[in-house]
Amino acid sequence: xxxxxxxxxxxxxxxxxxxxxxxxxxxxxxxxxVTYKRTYARWIPEQxxxxxxxxxxxxxxxxxxxxxxxxxNGDVTPxxxxxxxxxxxxxxxxxxxxxxxxxxxxxxxxxxxxxxRNGDALNNCWFIAIRPQxxxxxxxxxxxxxxxxxxxxxxxxxxxxQLMKGGGVGFSVVPSNISQLPPVAAKIKLSVLIGKESxxxxxxxxxxxxxxxxxxxxxxxxxxxxxxxPDTREGWVLAxxxxxxxxxxxxxxxxxxxxxxxxxxxxxxxxxxHGFGGTASGPMPxxxxxxxxxxxxxxxxxxxxxxxxxxxxxxxxxKAVVAGNVRRSAELALGGAEDDAFITMKQDxxxxxHHRWASNNSIAVDSSFTDYGPVADSILHNGEPGxxxxxxxxNYGRIADGRQEGxxxxxxxxxxxxxxxxxxxxxxxxxxxxxxxxxxQGWQLEDAFALGTRYTKRITFSHYDWEVSRKMIAKNRRIGxxxxxxxxxxxxxxxxxxxxxxxxxxxxxxxxxxxxxVYDQKAVQRFDALYQAIAKADxxxxxxxxxxxxxxxxxxxxxxxxxxxxxVSEGMHFHYAGYLIQRIRFQDSDPLLPALKACGYRIEPxxxxxxxxxxxxxxxxxxxxxxxxxxxxxxxxxEQFATQAFLQTYWSDNAVSCTATFQPEEADQLAGxxxxxxxxxxxxxxxxxSGGDLKQAPKEPIDAATYExxxxxxxxxxxxxxxxxxxxxxxxxxxxDQTDCESGACxxx
Length: 749
Fold this sequence. Notes:
Structural class: alpha/beta
Largest sheet: 7 strands, mixed
Radius of gyration: 26 Å
Distance between the termini: 38 Å
Shape: globular
Number of helices: 28
Low-confidence stretches: 1-5, 738-748
Oligomer: single chain
């Protein structure tokens, strides 16, 4: 092969793809193909249809393998080309069979033109600290700022940008960050202009905008901070930055008292969004957000913002993003453990329903924190806050490897679902293996995990839009190799659950007696061996690429949508029930509905949302008939805590996402369990087990007889029936309530 300065592209041949289709059967779960078709299958305009699974996997694998930096240095040897082609083929087989998948984000974006324009698009979630920061060499920098000048707007701009690109954002409002904010210097009058030529004119006026021509005739722009928004994502972000920065002396050098934002160019509601996909919301959500946010800042004139007020500003951004149709807002606000106002902020029902629903809230603690009584009481009231132990994340990988002072010392927070501890500006970078499925399809688990390790390592060589991210990614090269279907695999592999019992022990710091979990030692050895295989695969590939080894490697993500593809239990969580009805909501125009109806699935109008249909899927958990099987409705909260601790000790050097469910009679155990595992658990959250008692609940436990009866009503294959009906497909239809995470926090795509 000749040397060239043009990047070499590796592509899987059609003959190879056809061979795999003949040899490998995808391990679809009961909801798998339907979930895939409406969540990850992209539109092919030339053929007026959405992708099929074999096409999605080809796009995803090629998009990833071509990130290998050696393909871009102009010195590609035949040996290197052959090496990467073989790896691409292995990845294709693994993912096509659903033995493993990259994150849902990669399933949607990898290999698209959008990936080429926005390297950030391959990462699910991010973290940013709310304190004055410089924009630096980033793709968004307000024209009125020097790029190296710290600005209060920067972290909010970062958050807004990433949310609008479909990611999730964790953000920190702990006292050490909030104390760095300058006082709000003055109240600012905000004027939002809209021209009569805009299709959004009347709707905008109703929200508080004013006629542009009339305002310009009666006012002098020179006396204001004026910004005419282009019809871009960046325009929305910069409008918010103008409004925020005007309130602070250092970023409002003319001391103007009025900000004027012209929304006329923004495309109307329903217009197509190119690139990411979906349809526009019009300027109305942005107008509401800016007016509400300006009110928060004006209320703080003469003093510093509080952690609650900064969370409100973040929540209002999330609320505006949600209004954009295909996007979902995933936020986690991390506050101080002693900030009572933050801990109780969702008890204000009016503000909760207006915007505070937009984030999950957690508190930052260290291992010396033991006052979990008030925390447990708050959890009983509204399921929050969660707990994030930053000290453990900064000084430990796996707990079994002992304290390693400052091993990850720049960690300040976490992603919205809590499985990855992150530094300022850093993203999570995820891949997950389904061990039972992979083994069933003939894979050695070490090989499957090694492929995932190399997949995520390549993502760190993407082009990133923000300087703060580029610096931290190059330093840490953090990856998060996860597994889902953990409970399924443990029963398959070891014949029992990993927690085999409890034994009394004494807390050496408090002299209190607690119940120490006893673990299956074969499971301990197997999880440890798989971790070591991942660490070695990362070291070998890092040496080859001449880059830093990843600072951390493993995690357990909550999974959700991706786990549904393969039909496995979600992350570390126990199945909701051995047998259940899973309800999925569809837009009433979705072309999948006729195929589902023809196959006998029960469908009825959604009782909560107009133009939405609710489809019922009978589901049986793997190993539901095993005498050692436990579900979220039957397993004790103590065993869930112990299982998370096992995974944090022997598997995950990042963190383990866990939403522990508890029964009413277990509520008095929560404070004690949080205290017991303060030296082990890096992040956790808790929710009462609902049992599917809501009308049209997403999950409703049933018995085996009901499951069999429901299955008897279903005939035919939805995928085949859909193909036979040849419906006219529509662009950008999505499952209404599908999420990538157990808690519903992370974005669909």
